[in-house]
Design a protein that fits this description.
Helix 10 (about 200-215) links the parallel strand 6 (about 190-195) and strand 7. The protein contains 14 helices and seven strands. It has a seven-stranded parallel β-sheet, sandwiched between helices. By secondary structure, it is an alpha/beta fold.
């Protein structure tokens, strides 16, 4: 299929074309990369969906929450895309990519699209090409895009550079108020949802929510937040409790940011961030090409053998690059 046909089919909402386009942008082949850039240029960025990032530790119930939340949205005739990032093996690079199995009911919903992707050792909880996959889902006409991170802890802040709203999912009894004061992922969150607030865990969830609500009051006020945000609340993905209330809070925050101009400003800052990231990745790719590749390998051996320090070797390589 030529790119023009692929772009036309994708914009008409064809799910198979969207899946094929995401595969294209995730490919590491040079010819595929050139085609992916051409495709993204054809599609432009006229359509804007509400991008919601979701993070949380493993076992907090992210997949269960996304399925329940997604089904609630599709029941309101919203088109929902889920981009789930799975951790890759440090040994062989493989990933399970089992999110469609976990979200079986949502995967069958005609208004939903689920795409798992391997993290490929990318730091920050998202895959390198997740931003481009988001752009493709927007071009395909989805109203809401849910970005599920790997789920490894406090360092998953890169997703904040992809989304309009950043939701942090916590488990009951997951930490005291001191945990909430910790910098990192906490200060990036727009809404903290304590999941599993049902059955025997309900009282523990209420206490955890109160702890984090108190911690949020200690964080410095952000200019992009209206009064009362960020806030913490309890939900139960299993019993679908408070999901509609959480959605109401998300909509209110998104509408306020649009009205105040923070939405457009933040989108511009995110685009600038990814421009710098592409430059950094491009420079690293240059280092893997000859003659630079041989120079880097030689200095790497010197470091491994203890003949020089990593800092001194890096400085020498950078000095040589300036001379090339």
């Amino acid at each position: 299929m030529d790119l023009a046909t692929l772009a036309r089919n994708l914009q008409s909402g064809d799910r198979r074309s969207l899946a094929r386009a995401i595969t294209l942008v995730e490919s590491a082949r040079k010819d595929h990369r050139a085609q992916a850039l051409d495709l993204l240029q054809m599609l432009g960025n006229q359509k804007q969906a509400l991008r919601i990032g979701l993070s949380g530790t493993p076992g907090v119930g992210k997949s269960t929450f996304i399925e329940s939340f997604g089904l609630m949205l599709t029941a309101q005739a919203k088109r929902v895309a889920v981009l789930a990032v799975d951790p890759s093996s440090a040994r062989n690079g493989g990933s399970i990519l089992g999110d469609k199995t976990r979200m079986e009911r949502l995967a069958r919903d005609p208004l939903a699209f689920i795409r798992p992707s391997p993290s490929q050792a990318q730091m920050g909880g998202v895959a390198r090409r997740t931003r481009e996959a988001v752009a493709l889902c927007e071009a395909a006409g989805f109203d809401i895009i849910l970005i599920e991170t790997v789920g490894v802890g406090q360092s998953e802040t890169v997703v904040a550079e992809l989304c309009d709203l950043f939701i942090l999912l916590l488990a009951p009894a997951g930490g005291d108020e001191l945990q909430g004061v910790k910098r990192g992922i906490m200060e990036m969150a727009d809404l903290i949802l304590v999941n599993k607030a049902d059955g025997d865990l309900k009282s523990a969830a209420m206490r955890t929510c109160a702890d984090y609500a108190g911690a949020l009051r200690l964080l410095r006020k952000r200019p992009q937040d209206p009064p009362g945000y960020p806030k913490a609340m309890t939900v139960s993905a299993l019993e679908q409790a408070n999901l509609s209330l959480a959605w109401t809070e998300m909509q209110a925050l998104a509408e306020w940011r649009r009205a105040q101009g923070h939405w457009a400003t933040r989108r511009g800052q995110q685009a600038q961030h990814w421009f710098g990231e592409e430059l950094r990745q491009g420079l690293l790719a240059v280092l893997q090409q000859e003659p630079t590749k041989g120079i880097v390998a030689e200095h790497g051996r010197a470091v491994a053998e203890g003949r020089t320090t990593p800092e001194a070797a890096a400085r020498q390589v950078l000095t040589l690059l300036h001379r090339l």
